[in-house]
Amino acid sequence: MLLEYFLFGMMTFHLSGAQNEVTEVFAEAGSQAVLPCKCGPPSARIPAIIWRKDGKSTVWRKQKSGLEYWGYAWSSKTQRVRCPHTMFESGDFSLQIDNVKEEDGGVYSCRVERGVQVIEKTVTLRITRVSVSSSAPIWGSDVSITCNVTPWPLEALVRWTLNDSPFEPQNGAASNTRTAAMEKATGRLTGNWTCVVNYKGQEGRASATLSVQGVIHPPRDDAKVYAAVGSAVTLPCVFSPGLIPSDPVWEKLKPVFLTKPAPGRLPASFSASGPLSPLPSDQSASLKEVGLGDEGRYRCSGVIKGQRLTRNMQLVVAKVHSSVQSQNTGSVTLTCQLTDTGEVTNYEWVHVIYDLKGSRSVGPILEGKTLNISTMSEGNQGEWSCRFYGKDGLLGNVTYHIQQMSGVSGEKPTSVSHNTAATVGLSFLLLVMLLILAQIYKNHQRRKGIFRYPALETIVHTVSNEREERERNAVKKPTRKTSVVG
């Protein structure tokens, strides 16, 4: 008798095929979640399917007749749940939920009835989301970044990445916490944050973008701006779009104050108006002609929502120094010099030549910080440009002309000196000839003005002649002697 009951129970269990499996599914808020419910090989029997949430509320069900029903909470006009019929033939009764929300997280059950066979599966749906206290905080304001999972899995492992790189919190805080950062907003926190949750072999991810508003260009403090001596340069100071700073101020910082920089005197060619930009968020400045003494640190600032935001930058000045190696051959050494070489990785020299038509040709590229050339060679005439590079590419360049280099070094070829002396002599001779011609012309004009009146000229000569005649007669007339008779 007992054997019959045992065999009957085993047969009933086999026929019903009752099973219960638990599966973990992670989905980011706003994405599509697929809750698996695969029931083995296909069957010719028409199944009855029902999906429930938290063991009570119906999400979706289909009767053997083919009629479908949605639960009250899921029967909105925008249908978010469905169970594709095309998958039924393969025994796949998975549920798809579009645009999942945090309240969709929970435990779901799938029950499939195919004749006397009943299959049940349990799926835990966990919704992941990264929450930021402010998606665009002002520089220096408080900000927090938190990883949320609904429902939260106990003993889950959490790690954070910022811009696809592992994020290490400051001040020695643990990196495997739900909250990645609770600190002042700076450019360090700007970018794409991703929370990665590992639990029971499953991985959930969620991301959020944090954009800190303030000075966006330069993107960081102490960024370097490169300029050649004598050139013009723009010192950038651009605020986030939509931010209009009040009371903008530019300062040059004294180098002697390292911990607390003090403002110094701005260069004479400094202009706070900067480039002609229609954007009020652009408070860039400019130097019309950079001098070697203009190098150093500059600071721009502006008030946003009652808070003064600042950005420091460093102006690096470049020049070419020339030194004579040989007076006979005209050999000169050119050296590319910068006031700060901390970011420079390599140098190169480029020879640029312009012909009479203005066409530009470039010679071979020579590597190195220094260059030895001969100023006597016509092939070296033209422009020499020193380019300097950093790890991210070209930083800047400084140009120099061979004629300028000869003048600085004091070297003057003999032919040039002879030509100069001849030119000076000819110029002096021409000046003397012009003065002589001017005097001749002046005398000619004077005589021409007198001969216009010949009668007057005759009268003048006649009067002059008569006066001279009387004077001569008076001199020739003898003196009479008087005798006295006693």
From TrEMBL:
<protein>
    <recommendedName>
        <fullName>Ig-like domain-containing protein</fullName>
    </recommendedName>
</protein>
<dbReference type="InterPro" id="IPR036179">
    <property type="entry name" value="Ig-like_dom_sf"/>
</dbReference>
<dbReference type="InterPro" id="IPR013106">
    <property type="entry name" value="Ig_V-set"/>
</dbReference>
<dbReference type="GO" id="GO:0070374">
    <property type="term" value="P:positive regulation of ERK1 and ERK2 cascade"/>
</dbReference>
<feature type="domain" description="Ig-like">
    <location>
        <begin position="20"/>
        <end position="124"/>
    </location>
</feature>
<feature type="domain" description="Ig-like">
    <location>
        <begin position="140"/>
        <end position="211"/>
    </location>
</feature>
<dbReference type="InterPro" id="IPR003598">
    <property type="entry name" value="Ig_sub2"/>
</dbReference>
<feature type="signal peptide">
    <location>
        <begin position="1"/>
        <end position="18"/>
    </location>
</feature>
<dbReference type="GO" id="GO:1990782">
    <property type="term" value="F:protein tyrosine kinase binding"/>
</dbReference>
<feature type="compositionally biased region" description="Basic and acidic residues">
    <location>
        <begin position="465"/>
        <end position="474"/>
    </location>
</feature>
<keyword id="KW-0732">Signal</keyword>
<dbReference type="GO" id="GO:0042110">
    <property type="term" value="P:T cell activation"/>
</dbReference>
<feature type="transmembrane region" description="Helical">
    <location>
        <begin position="421"/>
        <end position="441"/>
    </location>
</feature>
<keyword id="KW-0472">Membrane</keyword>
<keyword id="KW-1133">Transmembrane helix</keyword>
<dbReference type="InterPro" id="IPR007110">
    <property type="entry name" value="Ig-like_dom"/>
</dbReference>
<dbReference type="GO" id="GO:0009897">
    <property type="term" value="C:external side of plasma membrane"/>
</dbReference>
<keyword id="KW-0812">Transmembrane</keyword>
<dbReference type="InterPro" id="IPR013783">
    <property type="entry name" value="Ig-like_fold"/>
</dbReference>
<feature type="domain" description="Ig-like">
    <location>
        <begin position="313"/>
        <end position="387"/>
    </location>
</feature>
<feature type="region of interest" description="Disordered">
    <location>
        <begin position="465"/>
        <end position="486"/>
    </location>
</feature>
<dbReference type="GO" id="GO:0035723">
    <property type="term" value="P:interleukin-15-mediated signaling pathway"/>
</dbReference>
<dbReference type="Pfam" id="PF07686">
    <property type="entry name" value="V-set"/>
</dbReference>
<dbReference type="InterPro" id="IPR003599">
    <property type="entry name" value="Ig_sub"/>
</dbReference>
<dbReference type="GO" id="GO:0045121">
    <property type="term" value="C:membrane raft"/>
</dbReference>
<dbReference type="GO" id="GO:0042289">
    <property type="term" value="F:MHC class II protein binding"/>
</dbReference>
